[in-house]
Design a protein that fits this description.
By secondary structure, the chain is α/β, with parallel strands linked by helices. The chain has a domain of 178 residues: Rossmann fold, CATH 3.40.50. Helix content is 33%, strand content 24%. A 7-stranded mixed beta sheet has the order 3-2-1-4-5-11-8, sandwiched between helices. A two-stranded antiparallel sheet has the order 6-7. Helix 4 links the parallel strand 2 and strand 3. The two termini are 30 Å apart. It comes from Kribbella caucasensis. One of its GO terms (molecular function) is methyltransferase activity.
């Protein structure tokens, strides 16, 4: 667990309604890349831990007989279920709970995926539990945006969202230390998943980077949704100053781009996989 921080149920409180609109999508083709890497054939079961509104699970569900999404935030699960119905995904189900609650009788899985969620868990405990839940040769998958991607080959046609200025505005309301639920994260979230997974007995590490780079328009409403989709600026953190913060945020965006339209390059997606040893 993160030093000096304890998980609580407000970590993403109020963020579910903003998540899909605010977050940039993963690179096109990430699901196909993972399916090819793991030889997925429509059989077996998928578990997405910390599934949020189901973005990754719904893209991967067609490669499995059943897909199970788990998240402690019931609003996220409700949004995931709504999206599954909208997209006609019928082999998914949703379970409320934390990674530390596993296995909770969920059975055996071919793949367990953590999409930018593993760092919020007691990683050694969770990795050991996932090892027991995977079928022999099954895969632990860590999926995220590629950190520090190479410079884009073409300039943006519009200004990028002013992320540093947005961060300064958040700090002016919430203080200089990053918020997370009812607590703060002084030293950031942890890394070195490779060491955690090695301690748990996983083998055969592979890394795949799915390129992206397409330019997407980002209206001011999308940027506001991005802010409220984050754990460190979730709506509940602002209390009775939420309306004031949103007013100031929109004024900042209007000042930077009077047309209230920005642009960004889609980041590459990094997929890291480890295997449970075969029987």
């Amino acid at each position: 667990m993160i030093d000096g921080w304890q998980w609580d149920s407000t970590l993403f409180q109020g963020s579910a309604a903003h998540y899909e609109r605010g977050r940039l999508p993963y690179a096109p083709g990430f699901a196909e890349t993972l399916a090819d890497a793991l030889d997925l054939d429509g059989q077996g079961r998928l578990l997405d831990v910390g599934c949020g509104p189901g973005i990754v699970l719904l893209a991967l569900a067609r490669y499995f007989a059943e897909a199970v999404g788990m998240d402690p935030d019931k609003d996220m699960l409700a949004e995931a279920e709504r999206q599954a119905g909208r997209r006609g995904v019928t082999n998914a189900r949703w379970v409320a709970g934390r990674a530390e609650d596993l296995p909770t009788g969920l059975g055996e899985f071919r793949v367990v995926v953590f999409a930018q969620s593993f760092h919020w868990t007691d990683r050694d405990q969770v990795a050991a539990t996932v090892m027991e839940m995977l079928e022999p040769g099954g895969a632990f998958v860590h999926l995220s945006d590629l950190k520090n991607p190479p410079a884009a080959p073409t300039p943006l046609p519009l200004l990028a969202p002013p992320y540093e200025q947005i961060s300064e505005l958040v700090r002016s309301y919430l203080g200089p230390v990053r918020r997370a639920g009812q607590g703060t994260i002084v030293n950031g979230t942890p890394g070195r998943e490779d060491l955690v997974l090695a301690r748990a007995g996983f083998v055969n590490f592979e890394r795949h980077v799915v390129p992206a780079g397409d330019v997407v328009d980002r209206p001011a409403d999308d940027v506001v949704a991005w802010v409220f989709s984050r754990s460190d600026s979730a709506p509940h953190l602002f209390g009775d100053r939420l309306a004031d913060f949103e007013r100031d945020l929109r004024a900042l965006l209007q000042e930077v781009a009077p047309g209230n339209l920005f642009a960004e390059h889609l980041p590459p997606t990094e997929i890291m996989t480890w295997r449970k040893p075969p029987a």
